[in-house]
Amino acid sequence: MKIIFATKNIGKLEEMRKILSGFQVVSAFEAGIEEDVVEDKETFVENALKKARFIHEKVGGIVIADDSGLCIKALDGAPGVYSARWAGENSSDQDKIKKTLSELVNIPKEERQAYFESAAVLILEDGSEHIFDDKVFGSISFEPHGIPLPKLPYDSIFIPSGYDKTFAEMSPEDKNSMSHRGLAFKKLKEFLISIR
């Protein structure tokens, strides 16, 4: 079963191929789509739907998309849906980490709660839409630890609840077993298997 993943993010694609092992996952670029979809909606679900619908209209088939972000309690939920553009439109992964930590510079350990949220959308060949979402709670470290995958900078500063290391310090298998994206796409995978 071939699935088009509406992303150009190499880090996300690498994660997705591990999570959806047993399925052939190709990127939007590999499916021949070079245009970017502007993520201008107010929720993760709306952004994921917009991306999936765009790809599905272009090439049909089975399409998946997600929108994910980091929500920090002390920053009133920021960066949220702006996680990718939090430090500016063309900011580097390092810029995003620096901005986040600078915003929390005077926030004590017990007030650094945060969660990652991921909304995964599946559109089947017949155009039916299915939404799967999940969250993982944790806190923000005082400095980065580990080496995150490209375009997943917040993994180096997010410590999931019950652990003493960041996502970036975990093996891909351990991270995917508990991450927001891993949990949301596990639900999606179970659904795909059920309709195979």
Report on this model:
It is built from 5 helices and 6 strands. The protein is 31% helix and 23% strand. It has a 6-stranded mixed sheet with strand order 2-1-3-4-5-6. It has a single domain, classed as Maf protein (Alpha-Beta Complex), CATH 3.90.950.10. Helix 4 crosses helix 5 (180-195). The protein is α/β, with parallel strands linked by helices.
Concise synopsis of the structure shown:
The protein is an alpha/beta fold. It has helices at 10-19, 44-59, 93-103, 172-178, 180-195; strands at residues 2-5, 24-27, 62-72, 113-123, 129-140, 158-160.
List keywords for this structure.
single chain; 196 residues; alpha/beta; Maf protein; six-stranded mixed β-sheet; 6 strands; 31% helix; globular
Oligomer: single chain
Strand content: 15-25%
- What is the overall pLDDT average? 94
**Main sheet summary:** 6 strands, mixed
Helix content: 25-40%
Structural class: alpha/beta
Describe the strand arrangement of the main beta sheet, using strand numbers.
2-1-3-4-5-6
Question: What letter string, H or E per element, gives the SSE order?
Answer: EHEHEHEEEHH
Question: Count of DSSP E strands?
Answer: 6
Q: Give me the CATH fold name.
A: Maf protein
First-residue to last-residue Cα separation? 8 Å
Radius of gyration: 16 Å
CATH class group: Alpha Beta
Any low-confidence stretches, pLDDT <50, length ≥5? none
Query: With helices defined by DSSP (H or I, 4 residues minimum), what is the helix count?
Result: 5
Number of domains: 1
**What shape does the CA trace take?**
globular
Per CATH, which architecture? Alpha-Beta Complex
